[in-house]
Design brief:
The structure holds two protein chains of two kinds. Chain A is mostly helical. Chain A is built from 13 helices and two strands. In chain B, the strands form three sheets. In chain B, strands 1, 2, 3, 6, 7, 10, 11, 12, 13 and 14 form a ten-stranded mixed β-sheet that branches. A two-stranded antiparallel sheet of chain B has the order 4-5. In chain B, strands 8-9 form a two-stranded antiparallel ribbon. In chain B, strand 1, helix 2 and strand 2 form a beta-alpha-beta unit. Classes of the chains: A mainly alpha, B alpha/beta. Chain A binds chain B through residues 29-32, 52-54, 57, 118, 122-125, 141, 143-146, 226-235, 245-246, 249-252, and chain B through 67-68, 70-71, 74-75, 78, 95, 99-101, 178, 186-188, 238-245, 249-250, 253-254, 257, 259, 390-391, 394-395, 398, 401-402, 404-405, 407, 419-420, 423-424.
């Protein structure tokens, strides 16, 4: 019987989404009842893509989110496969310990991560700059420069999430039959060829799943920005979730905030659909 | 006696006792603040004192970082279970009052505030002539400088004009030592905008005049150009200017560790300086804001904080909250004729605003650090409290940060700031 499940999904998933879409066409303050909302058509969307500070800040936040997501996925996925391959080797001593250590970063609460990393990144007293100084590299501004602040937050994200994605990669590796590698070895394939023609193609589904999860996680980034940079400097770390909170809650501009949330949702749907279409196309062409 | 009779008697007894228990039931009120744990402990102690005479009122104190205070008030203040009392920045009041999140002060409280506080502070706690909060602190900006660094650079006295200010900033800059002459702030709206606004009013300009942005004035143009000069000359380094959610971070670290010669900051950071510098706090001195070429004398920006009551809280909770606040801010609650609130504020180096509190704390307000702030209070200009003020502040912050990092010229920054402010204030006024 599907009715209870459909009802639950309708109430807890679809209704809030539809409400957000409806609010995006309204002039509405979050401090007033829904009944006070007034229909303004595409007014909120025109505003967030317009030339005023509202539009400029939204477009910057959208771009920052896209850069953050792209860099996170580009770094996390290959690293998770590399770590997965290293840890999956049964003959490697301490493999289980390494797996546990890698996964442990994922369990550390973000507040603790933020506290530690904001000090690690400190331009004057930070250990990272001190380490760079030992190898003759001058101090880096990290979070203090609009050119490096977003990338610094990406590094923090990669550090925290890579363990989780390594576990996913290991799960994918366990699904690959060992006989394939044995046959390839007999045929004279070296390690690199085995990786290219066996491991990577057979990990494709796992990597697709990992990519989707990594994109969703990255798009929802909020805590490190709220805790460390407050969106600065010069809005360089102002990502969409943080910006929507500022507009929708701090300024109580619920209609504008909803329009931004709808755009975020649409961007996510387009990205994930494009990813699935790309992988499916590749599957059917093979 | 049968079971049925026992039940009936028990029910009757319960109905008789019910109103009495209702009377005896305590009223729970909560107080939301952004203060540090040490200061929260002082507030809790004051709440305990109040509870001695009011055993039916239970007060809990909850603290969040400054960066989360407005969000918490907005997201939780709309319900009866939200914080009963909130400490707020005056810039937020017009919109919180418009959205009916804060309750107007009862007549006796309003009358007391109007008679015991300076008129300017009362006006910052009012919207359309209605008083919404009991003012407590007043903050004002001044130039803080490191006497030791001044001595090393051969500077005899703090700068009085912008020309002297630029000269001192250049002398204090030593790139080999990682030392900057003047420290700006970024990633924190008030920290970016208030020092700029203090320099602007000391140059004869205004942020907002007659409800309209006035950033297109020649005086504002000169202030944007001053920032550009300081950045281009290397006397101010934006990489040393970052603040975090707790309004601390590298900008503070650099000043306390003697890597920043001068900064324009408010009196409340006395406690942060003391805890960061220890004995070296004695090196810090205060001076009026340097006067610009179009200014007449040093001015400063001031702003105030107040405590407000949740308009959605129950009647009993609101009544208890106003009673507690009236007591907390009255000369009866503190030491030597001061209010308990002013004792708490003075522990952080914050100036109280009630007339009797200023008198009661006269000795401490005469300290080397605070006297510099008290002396500029008379000529301070209140930060404009207008609908859309917070968004205006955040927008100007973005423009000033872009100028700090060389992304825009002073001329473009001025044009952008005026255009953004005009659209924000017009939209908010609708």
């Amino acid at each position: 019987m599907l009715a209870p499940a459909v009802t639950l999904i309708g109430v807890f998933v679809l209704l809030p989404m539809l409400l957000t879409v409806w609010l995006s066409f309204q002039d509405w303050s979050t401090q007033t009842p829904f009944s006070d909302a007034g229909f303004i058509g595409l007014g909120n969307f025109r505003e967030i893509f317009g030339p005023t500070s509202v539009g400029r800040d939204f477009k910057t936040a959208l771009l920052n989110t896209a850069i953050y997501t792209t860099l996170s996925v580009i770094l996390i996925l290959p690293l998770s496969v590399v770590f997965g391959l290293l840890v999956y080797q049964r003959e490697v001593a301490g493999g289980t310990t390494l797996r546990t250590v890698l996964f442990s970063t994922y369990m550390v609460p973000m507040i603790a991560v933020a506290l530690v990393w904001s000090k690690l990144y400190s331009p004057s007293e930070g250990p990272l700059n001190q380490l760079l100084g030992l190898v003759g590299i001058g101090p880096q501004p990290w979070l203090s420069s609009p050119r490096s602040a977003l990338v610094s937050i990406v590094f923090l994200n990669v550090w925290q999430q890579v363990g989780y994605f390594t576990v996913l990669a290991i799960a994918g590796l366990t699904q690959i039959p060992g006989s394939l590698y044995e046959a390839a070895t007999l045929d004279g394939a070296n390690r690199r060829e085995q990786f290219r023609f066996i491991t990577l193609p057979l990990l494709r589904r796992t990597l697709l799943f990992s990519a989707v999860i990594a994109i969703i996680n990255a798009v929802q980034v909020f805590e490190p920005v709220a805790l460390i940079t407050q969106g600065g400097p010069v809005g360089s770390t102002n990502v969409l979730t943080y910006h929507i909170r500022r507009v929708g809650i701090e300024r109580a501009q619920g209609g504008l905030g909803s329009a931004m949330a709808v755009m975020l949702m649409l961007s996510l749907i387009v990205c994930v659909s494009a990813l699935f279409a790309f992988v499916n196309r590749k599957d059917s062409s093979e | 006696m049968s079971l049925a009779w026992i039940s009936k008697l028990a029910l009757a007894a319960g109905l008789i006792v019910l109103p009495a228990t209702g009377w005896a039931q305590s009223v729970n009120i909560s107080y939301l603040t952004h203060w540090s744990p040490e200061t929260v402990a002082l507030l809790e102690a004051a709440a305990k004192d109040f509870a001695k005479a009011n055993p039916d009122v239970a007060i809990t104190v909850r603290a969040v970082p400054f960066g989360d205070l407005l969000t918490t008030l907005r997201s939780q203040g709309g319900s009866s279970d939200g914080p009963t009392i909130g400490g707020i920045y005056d810039l937020w009041l017009p919109e919180l009052a418009r959205d009916k999140l804060v309750a107007p002060a009862p007549e006796p409280v309003a009358a007391e505030v109007k008679s015991a506080w300076p008129a300017g502070v009362v006006s910052a706690a009012s919207v359309g002539g209605t008083l919404y909060g009991i003012p407590n602190e007043i903050d004002v900006y001044a130039l803080n400088y490191n006497k030791e660094l001044f001595k090393e650079a051969g500077i005899a006295a703090p700068p009085k004009t912008w020309a002297e200010f630029k000269e001192a900033a250049a002398k204090l800059t030593n790139k080999d030592k990682g030392q900057q002459g003047f420290g700006m702030i970024n990633s924190w709206a008030a920290g970016v905008v208030h020092p700029f606004a203090s320099l602007l009013v000391s140059n004869g300009g205004n942020l907002v005049k007659d409800g309209k942005p006035a950033l297109d004035s020649p005086q504002a143009g000169e202030t944007f150009a001053l920032y550009e000069d300081l950045i281009k000359s290397g006397a101010s380094n934006p990489a040393m200017a970052t603040a975090d959610a707790n309004t601390t971070g590298p900008f503070l670290d650099n000043f306390v560790s003697g890597k920043t010669g001068m900064i324009i900051m408010a009196n409340w950071w006395e406690s942060a300086l003391k805890s960061g510098m220890g004995d070296k706090f004695a090196n810090v001195a205060t001076a009026p804001i340097p006067v610009g070429p179009s200014g007449d004398k040093p001015h400063s920006i001031s702003y105030s904080w107040m405590t407000v009551v949740n308009a959605k809280a129950g009647e009993a909770e609101q009544k208890a909250a106003w009673e507690f606040l009236a007591w907390l801010n009255s000369p009866k609650s503190g030491k030597n004729g001061a209010s308990a609130m002013s004792d708490i504020l003075m522990s952080m180096g914050i100036l109280p605003s009630r007339n009797s509190d200023i008198e009661a704390h006269k000795d401490k307000l005469g300290s080397e650090f605070l006297s510099g702030y008290v002396s500029v209070l008379a000529d301070a200009r209140p930060f404009p409290v207008v609908p859309g003020g917070q968004e205006f502040s955040e927008s100007l912050q973005q423009t000033l940060e872009a100028l700090q990092y060389g992304q825009v010229s002073a001329k473009d920054a001025q044009a952008n700031a005026q255009a953004d402010a005009t659209s924000i204030l017009e939209r908010a006024a609708k």
